[in-house]
From TrEMBL, chains A, B:
The keyword Lyase is annotated on this UniProt entry: yes
PANTHER family: SERINE / THREONINE RACEMASE FAMILY MEMBER, SERINE RACEMASE
Any Pfam family the entry gives: PALP
Family from the record: Belongs to the serine/threonine dehydratase family.
InterPro entries in alphabetical order: TrpB-like_PALP (IPR001926), TrpB-like_PALP_sf (IPR036052)
Official protein name in the record: Serine dehydratase
BP terms from Gene Ontology: D-serine biosynthetic process
Taxonomic path: Bacteria, Pseudomonadati, Bacteroidota, Flavobacteriia, Flavobacteriales
UniProt source species: Constantimarinum furrinae
Keywords: Lyase, Pyridoxal phosphate
Top-level taxon: Bacteria
Gene3D superfamilies: 3.40.50.1100
GO molecular function: ATP binding; L-serine ammonia-lyase activity; magnesium ion binding; pyridoxal phosphate binding; serine racemase activity; threonine racemase activity
Cofactor(s) recorded in Swiss-Prot or TrEMBL: pyridoxal 5'-phosphate
Record has Lyase as a keyword: yes
């Protein structure tokens, strides 16, 4: 059930030519502040602005020629919509994107800019799934889930491979937990490329489904998910949960105010623009700072797609 | 009158251990948009958030032991105040900083945080010079000018050395022009380390003293300087002007709206936080885009010290 090292190696060689090798940044100020040695893997500098490009490229690459000719479909209003659109363009196929009618104009524009073909649906999950199903019936396109897909998970793991190539002796890697694709991929990379490197998730208290899932041993949902970390409102799936269950050490939950503080610190001290979701693992580290003292900690900055006009501090 | 390659080499080896080697970032989107190959040297990631650390370290390092024991003094409300404070701390001496009473609290806090000793004065240049003079009389500290000092100029040139080490075939390097220290240092680096690498300045139309100085052949002042690029309101001096006159190809002037557009583009597309002054050379490139088509262009992102609460787009 756990993908092999060979599968991850293969994903890395497939994904590499289509993505940026993003820089790993450090900040002496944040090191002083936390007492840890922090290494930020800046996927906010990735193509289309987030790590999701990696999984999308890998999933499309694994299709056969017939499937590629018919295209891919997903429903997402976030980064995966852009990722699948740009990956499809890079790999000469089509991406059909189901977006809720109320999705922000700026997100629709980004998808169109990358060549994605948008179908609007009502905002409910049922309506979105029905719209995707209709496209599949009409076009024969292959559905690709944003996070609960083994090839997507393997692709997302390549960010941590690059991080570990630069910093082989990390004690742990911290990532945000949303749908579970990034943390599952990172856990595989840490297992196969790290040296006793733990993987720790950061999750908003207001959408702590993964924390509860690890406790109960089965996939839990969120009743509400009003967190400002809008990329983390989703829940785990049957492909990534087994990986998370067996390879992730811990999930640390943080309050909204802690996310805001972490985001401001990253932007002020590191001079980089990050999404709210990206601030969650750093918020988790700040919360349990003493546990990380003296440790070498990798943090994956998952993305940087923020609407600048909505930034308020 | 033009410092030698040996002097610049020496500055580089002196400065190196005290500064970050900042990354050089590219953006495929901005390359597509402009038709040039752009290489952004990210001095916004430098210690204290700006290239000014380089010149401050070099100037202090060149003092003899007696001078070092007595400390250094400058008047600045901007990045050089922080740079001199942090450089003095790194080199075990004291920095006396004259700041206008109306300087923003956040800037005073930053200077104090780096160990600078603040003296407040009235905001006029006369009052600031008088306050600095008084400190010199009392303490025997050495005055260090933020931009019109040969050792400062040589220190600032080290950013372009690093850029040219990574991208030896740049056709030109673009920098903002304020007091003239960065552009003079960059011009020396391009001359000694580049291969026919031009240096081009970007300057706000509202503070275009350097543009007019190059035209008239003598140092011109600004009547008013209300540009949003607040780091560029100053004028050239007798140490940097001869270097600029003999080694800088051109200065391109830009409107306030062009600076704002360039700043937003950099932040949205590159996901980095830059000061308004740092957006000026990119604004200059956008303005005369066709002249740079197909060229390899280095752009020095001079700093990232912005008050996030003042960011409005």
């Amino acid at each position: 059930m756990i993908p092999s090292k060979a599968q991850l190696d293969s994903a890395y060689s497939i994904v590499k030519p289509y993505v940026h090798r993003t820089p790993v940044l450090s900040s002496s100020l944040l090191n002083e502040l936390t007492g840890s040695n922090l290494f930020f893997k800046c996927e906010n500098f990735q193509k289309m602005g987030a790590f999701k490009m990696r999984g999308a490229v890998h999933a499309i690459s694994k299709l056969n020629d017939n499937e590629k000719a018919r295209g891919v479909v997903t429903h997402s209003s976030g980064n995966f919509a852009q990722a699948l659109s740009l990956a499809a363009k890079s790999l000469n196929t089509k991406a059909y994107i189901v977006m809720p009618v109320n999705a922000p104009e700026v997100k629709k524009r980004a998808v169109k800019q990358y060549g994605g073909i948008i179908t609007e649906s009502e905002a409910t999950i049922q309506a979105r799934e029905a719209a995707a199903e209709e496209i599949i019936q009409e076009t024969g396109a292959t559905f690709i889930h944003p996070s609960n897909d083994t090839n997507v998970i393997l692709g997302q793991g390549t960010a941590a491979i690059e991080l570990l190539e630069e910093q082989p002796l990390l004690d742990c890697i911290m990532v945000p937990v949303g749908g579970g694709g990034l943390i599952a991929g990172t856990a595989l990379a840490a297992r196969y490329y790290g040296k006793n490197c733990k993987v720790i998730g950061g999750e908003p208290m207001l959408a702590d489904d993964a924390y509860r899932s690890l406790k109960s041993g089965k996939i839990e949902l969120n009743d509400t998910a009003n967190t400002i970390a809008d990329g983390l409102r989703t829940y785990l799936g049957d492909k990534n949960f087994p990986i998370i269950k067996s390879l992730v050490s811990e999930i640390i939950r943080v309050e909204e105010e802690e996310i805001r503080t972490a985001m401001r610190l990253i932007m002020e001290r590191m001079k980089i623009i990050v999404e709210t979701s990206s601030a969650v693992p750093f918020a988790a580290l700040l919360k349990e700072q003493s546990n990380f003292a003296g440790k070498n900690v990798g943090i994956i900055i998952s993305g940087g797609n923020v609407d600048l006009s909505e930034l308020t501090f």
